[in-house]
Amino acid sequence: MSNHVFVLDINKQPLDPCTPGMARSLLKAGKAAVFRQYPFTIILKKEVAKNKDAKSCQLKLDPGSVTAGIAILQENKLIWAAELTHRGQKIKDDLESRRSLRRGRRGRKTRYRKPRFLNRTREKGWLAPSLEHRVLTTMTWVKRLIKLCPIDSIAMELVRFDCHKLQNQEISGKEYQQGTLYQYEVREYLLEKFNRTCAYCGAKDTPLEVEHIKPKSKGGSNRVSNLTIACVPCNQAKSNLDIREFLADKPSVLKRVLAQAKAPLKDAAAVNSTRWKLLKSLKETGLPVTTGTGGQTKFNRREQKLEKRHYLDAACVGDTPQLEILTNQPLLIKCAGHGKRQIVHVDKFGFPRINKSGELVRKSALVKQVKGFQTGDIVKAVVTGGKKIGSYLGKVAVRSSGSFNIKTITQTVQGISHKYCSIVQKKDGYTYGF
């Protein structure tokens, strides 16, 4: 079951999405043309009368620190779904790398950008770039989908993590010191943290229990860093043994559990930091926006016996009657950025790289356009002769020589002439898959 296809009229106004079979019929009959490949959209060639019985569509969002779920419902039917993967951690790593390189140049007394810290002010509601990216990327796709589909309302899961409570279940009153109190089940947090599998044996689809890594009888606490999830047999077998004693013959499992237990709460903190900014941005679209809790989403998903997937979580946000799932193949969207402005390759110390002839090694990706192609464009190459004969579909990396590289789902093909290439979709900073 595939996603429905978005349909536009000759004025590029959204019409009711149609089934893939209907879209194929319109394309074969010459009544429509492909407007966009991802998400797949067709545009009609003739003007049509507006359907008075048009069905309204609702956009639902399940924001996440790493991946956000997106679902479009039409009369309680899931007709289109996507999972959007952010690049917040990559942004954080790039900023830290830039900071360390600049600091290194200052320490070597070379030409550098002067540090600025006393002349900077942050506006109210400021978010770190890695967090702001999550909001902006989500809003980019909300606005894009509004242009492609007749959406009349938006529903968003307003997740509430109590990071204090996750660390210490006995905390109360003035011990919070600062921050807002939100209740959240520790069990649900642990299920997400350990991927809903037994930490000791990896069992799935079985009843799981909250387990103390260091038993309370031996001084263990209820802090979330001392808790894990285990199946009933493993929990009973461990009893009140220390984890090092219980996993003495499984050193790799012991190392993994201890490392995972001490994992920071950065994902919960990221969701907490961005949820109100995202809600405010959604309201600025002018469409009615409703919210639902994480517990409500989980209840709806369990009642309808759906698996744990980001797009299904999105479909279950808020008040959700019995759903009819018409797609189980969400569009996988991954933020890839728009490349770098860095002109010269550098080594790990930040020094420019020099080739054998003494010339700087420059980034070929900075060549903006070659023969009408740009790095990041999705192209289709049909090679009719030579060693690389065949058809290739993927992202292109241009070279000034006109010989390109094409990255498909399974491989990277080098040395494809621009003569064999045709553009499927211009670059937009995302990669797509199913």
At a glance:
This protein folds into four domains: 5-44; 57-87 and 127-161 and 268-335, 2-Layer Sandwich (Nucleotidyltransferase, domain 5); 168-261, DNA Binding (I), subunit A (Orthogonal Bundle); 364-433, SH3 type barrels.
Describe the structure.
This protein is α/β, with parallel strands linked by helices and 434 residues long. The chain has four domains: 5-44; 57-87 and 127-161 and 268-335, Nucleotidyltransferase, domain 5; 168-261, DNA Binding (I), subunit A (Orthogonal Bundle), CATH 1.10.30; 364-433, SH3 type barrels (Roll). It is built from eleven helices and 19 strands. The chain has helices spanning 20-28, 88-107, 129-148, 163-167, 186-193, 232-238, 243-246, 251-261, 266-283, 294-303, 310-315, and strands at 5-8, 14-18, 32-36, 41-44, 57-62, 67-73, 77-85, 151-157, 208-212, 227-231, 289-292, 324-325, 331-335, 378-383, 390-397, 403-407, 412-417, 421-425, 430-433. The strands form four sheets. Strands 5, 6, 7, 8, 11, 12, 13 and 19 form an eight-stranded mixed beta sheet that branches. Strand 1 (5-8) and strand 2 form a beta hairpin. The chain is globular.
CATH superfamily of the largest domain: Ribonuclease H-like superfamily/Ribonuclease H
What is the strand content? 15-25%
Mean pLDDT: 83
Helix content: 25-40%
Order of helices and strands: EEHEEEEEHHEHHEEHHHHEHHEEEEEEEE
| CATH class annotation of the largest domain | Alpha Beta
| Morphology | globular
